[in-house]
Design goal:
By secondary structure, this protein is α/β, with parallel strands linked by helices. It is 34% helix and 17% strand. The protein contains 13 helices and 14 strands. β3, α6 and β4 form a beta-alpha-beta unit. The longest helix has 21 residues. The protein is globular, with a radius of gyration of 21 Å.
């Protein structure tokens, strides 16, 4: 389970990314007492000193932290690394919007009457701001974020779903080479005006396919189930995915994870808890982040109860997103590593791992396959 953006302190090169002093979990816990008894029992407070969280004297889990070895700090980079893919070159991001060479080619090839936006923005906020103008002009709303994404928002009654997908495919074809963003995303919405515009469930991602020798297809080829929940399948362009379960928010993802644990499957359940990043990290809302952590902690016993005796739960993150810092960008941080199983060892310090790929290598070794990168910690747990 990936607690999206829940970093645990700056990496040595954080200053090179403009992230000196970043500490997502640490700074949230400094703001006020945050009640996280189950994460504390797992060993969160044993990873490093945290305000208001004493180390557990008898943790039920194994604990450590992972280095992000890849060159980047975005969703795709972190998740791909978990599956054994180390990126030497970061996916491009556009903090000032896309340059004219991209926008002009998009307008021409997609045959649209221009575009609106072309800024980093929250998807819900930009449709409030520009949705009415879009409806009046027919110009699609183009925007990006801290991630490597080219997002296109359009009202379903102005730009039908099929047409929106078509222009997204055109954008995907344009965004190659030095402009090869991680994902092009169709973001349709409905409503009568700015007061009630609402995104629909017809979102569709056009991702860069990962290399085929990553954890997910290797498990599938070995006959294992690869159940993906939330945005996981789209991050891997559905490569190796045997089941894709919808999870629009933390509650749905937790429900679906429990449902998957209770189902007759054997293999990997891979979940992403998106709210931490999307609702609270990017929007610089430390109080909302704290409440979301407390709510997830409340639900952890349900996950424990659903686990079989031979199941292993691994909790981690893909990058940081310190809500106490300026701006809205991700932050270059270590990420926590907590591992728990009813028959697993307890209280083992897994140390500072050289890469998130150690998680993938551990899972791969358990199922008798091997990745190109990563050092397994299976013998320690």
């Amino acid at each position: 389970m990936v607690l999206d953006s829940a970093g645990i302190g700056e990496m040595p090169d954080a200053a090179d990314w403009g992230d000196a002093g970043a500490d997502t979990i640490g700074h949230i816990l400094e703001r006020r007492p945050v009640h996280l008894p189950n994460l504390q029992r797992l060993g969160l407070g044993n990873i490093r000193p945290l305000v208001g969280m004493t180390p557990s004297q008898d943790p039920i889990g194994c604990y450590g932290k992972c280095t992000l070895k890849s060159n980047g700090k975005d969703t795709t980079t972190g998740h791909w690394e978990m599956a054994g893919i180390i990126l030497k070159k970061a996916f491009p991001t556009y903090p000032h919007g896309f340059p004219p060479r991209i926008i002009d080619e998009f307008v021409e090839k997609a045959e649209v009457p221009g575009i609106l936006g072309n800024v980093p923005a929250s998807g819900t906020e930009i449709i409030k701001e520009l949705g009415e103008e879009h409806v009046a002009t027919g110009k699609p709303i183009v925007y990006t974020s801290a991630d490597s994404v080219f997002q296109i928002a359009a009202h379903e009654e102005v730009v039908p779903i099929g047409r929106l997908y078509e222009i997204c495919e055109i954008a995907r074809g344009i965004l190659q080479g030095e402009d090869k963003v991680g994902r092009v995303i169709a973001r349709p919405f409905l409503g009568r005006n700015a007061g009630n515009f609402k995104r629909t469930e017809n979102r569709h991602d056009y991702a860069v396919p990962p290399p085929s020798d990553n954890l997910l297809p290797l498990l599938k080829e070995a006959g294992e189930d690869v159940v993906c929940i939330g945005k996981i399948a789209s991050i891997y362009d559905s490569l190796g995915v045997t089941e894709d379960r919808v999870g629009k928010n933390n509650e749905q993802v937790t429900d679906q994870t429990i449902n998957a644990l209770n189902a007759e499957s054997h293999g990997l359940i891979f979940s992403n808890l998106v709210d931490f990043d999307m609702l609270y990290g990017h929007r610089r809302d430390p109080e909302g982040y704290a409440k979301a952590l407390e709510r997830f902690d409340e639900r952890l016993p349900e996950i424990f109860d659903a686990m079989r005796d031979d199941d292993l739960l691994i909790l981690t993150a893909d990058h940081g997103n310190d809500p106490t810092k300026g701006g809205s960008d991700h932050t270059r941080e270590y990420v926590p590593l907590l591992a728990y199983g009813k028959k697993a060892r307890r209280g083992v310090n897994l140390g500072t791992r050289q890469s998130l790929s150690d998680i993938g290598q551990t899972i791969a070794e358990n199922f008798g396959v091997k990745l190109a990168d990563g050092v397994s910690f299976i013998d320690q747990i």
